[in-house]
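User: Let's play a game. I give you a shape written as tokens, and you guess the letters that built it. Ready? Here's round one.
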């Protein structure tokens, strides 16, 4: 569903009047959001990177991230909002991306909004893209069916209890082979025997 990016025609804060209710996509009455996609009631508070923070490294969240400081790395979340004074050097991957500040890198989101104060240098992969008048965008706009495909979201870490491993017992050394020695039997021929040992076959008669 394409979020309602339309701003009210009057400044409710200055005039003191309440903005007129509008018919929402679900058939009910709601108050139009100013410059941001509709935030579901089940969403919690976003994780905010304050303007005094400088983060070097990738950010990953299962919820929303609002950047008001500087991030040198990629951001992966469900909803990402880049503040007007924020600076991001890296890619952004989220279902919804709202950019008001400076982004040097690619943006992948199902719904992407580039507001008037933004400065984006990089390609944008999207299902729906809205660019306000005055926004700076230098790069390619590529419409895809699922711009976040192939970029798995952050997963919950499951504690794994290591199994007890019994120590290995070294096998006994191999035994030396045992050979049995049988002395050979030697039989001497009769002619080799001494005369005393010659067998007597009878006496000769003259």
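Assistant: Ready! My guess for every position:
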């Amino acid at each position: 569903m394409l979020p309602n990016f339309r701003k009210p025609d009057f400044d409710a804060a200055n005039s003191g009047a309440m903005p007129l209710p509008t018919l929402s996509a679900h058939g009910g009455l709601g108050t139009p959001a100013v410059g941001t996609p509709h935030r579901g009631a089940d969403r919690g508070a976003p994780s905010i990177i304050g303007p005094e923070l400088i983060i070097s490294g990738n950010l990953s969240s299962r919820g929303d991230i609002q950047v008001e400081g500087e991030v040198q790395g990629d951001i992966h979340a469900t909803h990402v909002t880049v503040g007007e004074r924020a600076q991001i050097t890296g890619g952004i991957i989220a279902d919804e991306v709202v950019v008001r500040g400076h982004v040097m890198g690619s943006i992948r989101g199902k719904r992407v909004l580039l507001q008037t104060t933004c400065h984006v240098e990089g390609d944008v992969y999207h299902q729906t893209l809205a660019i306000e008048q005055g926004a700076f965008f230098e790069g390619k706009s590529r419409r895809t069916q699922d711009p976040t495909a192939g970029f798995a979201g952050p997963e919950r870490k499951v504690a794994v209890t290591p199994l007890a491993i019994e120590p290995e017992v070294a096998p006994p050394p191999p035994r030396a082979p045992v050979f049995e020695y049988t002395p050979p039997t030697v039989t001497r021929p009769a002619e080799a025997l001494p005369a005393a040992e010659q067998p007597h076959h009878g006496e000769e008669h003259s």
